Amino acid sequence: MSLKDKLAGSVLGFGTAPLGNMFRNIPEAEAQATVDAAWDHGVRYFDSAPFYGAGLSEIRLGDALSRHKRDEYVLSTKVGRLILDELEDASARDLGEKGGLFEHGRANKMVNDYSADATLRSIEDSLKRLKTDRLDIVWVHDIAQDFYGDEWLSYFETARKGAFRVLTRLREEGVIKAWGLGVNKVEPIELTLDLAEAQADGFLLAGRYSLLDHERALQRLMPKAIERNAEIVVGGPYSSGILAGGAHFEYQKAPPEIIAKVEQMKSTAQRHGVSIKAAALQFVLANPAVAAVIPGASRPERIAEDAAARKEVIPADFWRDLREQHLVAANAPLPVDNV
Question: Got a GO cellular component term for this one (predicted)?
Answer without folding.
Answer: cytosol
